[in-house]
Amino acid sequence: MQQLEALTKDALDLGGGIIALSASEAEAARQLQVCNACRYCEGFCAMFPAMTQRLMFEKADVHYLANLCHNCGACLHACQYAPPHEFAINVPQVMAQVRGQTYKDYAWPPALGKLYERNSLVLTLALAAGLALFLALAVAMGGGLWNSAVSGNFYNIFPHNLLVGLFAPVFLFALLALGMGLRHFLRDIGPATSGASATTPAALEATSAVLQLKYLDGGHGEGCNNEDDKFTLSRRRFHHLTFYGFMLCFAATSLATVYHYAFGWQAPYDLPSVPKILGTVGGVALMIGTAGLWYLHRRRHPLHGDLAQKPMDLGFIALLFLISASGLALWLGRATPAMALLLCLHLGAVMALFLTMPYSKFAHGFFRSAALLRYAVEKRQPKSALPGAD
Ligand code: SF4
Ligand code: SF4
């Protein structure tokens, strides 16, 4: 083992001009050297085939590979060198640590990357600020928080233009910040992944892997490991419910915006309107998905992932659950005097999500999708052009 570490160090020294690795990146590079000699897990996910294309693991390689890992746990449970073996190989854990650093390093503007260090506090403060904003506005606008005169129409509490004025700038900034972070990430990992441009087949393959959560199937279709050696598809299914539930809610809001501006059809919409169907199905899926992910997360084996990121992961799941539950409660309670209170709760939670989007677990989907795209591009290059080809 010591010999292997010495060889790794020599290889890095020979590289000259290589950007210094952080502790977690260096540990990932060490483990990848062992895996590259072993290659037992080659069929488990995209990370291992991508690893075999390399002889050395520099900063960009490590960030790329870390974001290809879906933390399914399969390679930890299969590994003969996992702790307590002296090699102490725990790929899901070290990759999770590097991913955490990716989010921080590529946050935009860079100074706000620090928000990842105290993410649960940031989330709590954002939620408190969102709730305070809408509670104060409801009171200031004279309707109060317990009001039977609003007759099921939330625009009687907050006018449409006020809501657009509050949410649109925050949402657009979040998109800009995520886009800039992603741009810098791709700029760094692009040259490390052949530098070739994305083609349509590569983009389609990456999109399919994202939409199916292909690499949460453990490589054999039976799923991930969660608390023990047994395979389970639960994480993949709950993740799907969360993702598609969120997308349906987003589609409902986007369609409602089109109705409002293009056709002059004002909310509220009720069943069987398309926005209401999308919102209701999406809200229920999001609630079930996040409740399931919370349950599984609490039961996960402690060696999976990075324990330091647990508050961020659970906080994000809880916020999505609150958004879906309060949205459905708002719909069910729209004809009651509690509507204003429920609306404040829902809007405050959505505002907290928008405020923290570029500095929370939300970012993982963007970085993982970008890594999968580069993987689909890289694997299409001639083998002879890649340094670690067999
Ligand atoms: S995780 Fe373990 S078994 Fe899998 S390739 Fe690495 S060293 Fe080999
Ligand atoms: S934890 Fe799963 S996704 Fe991550 S490297 Fe191991 S097998 Fe691949």
TrEMBL record:
Protein name in the entry: Tricarballylate utilization protein TcuB
InterPro entries: Citrate_utilization_prot_B, NarG-like_sf
Signal sequence interval, chain numbering: none
The keyword Transmembrane belongs to this UniProt entry's keyword annotation: yes
TM helices/strands, residue ranges: 121-146, 158-178, 241-262, 277-296, 316-333, 339-359
Record carries keyword Protein biosynthesis: no
Alphabetical UniProt keywords: Membrane, Transmembrane, Transmembrane helix
Record SUPFAM superfamilies: 4Fe-4S ferredoxins, Respiratory nitrate reductase 1 gamma chain
NCBIfam families the record matches: CitB, PRK15033.1
Protein encoded by which gene: tcuB
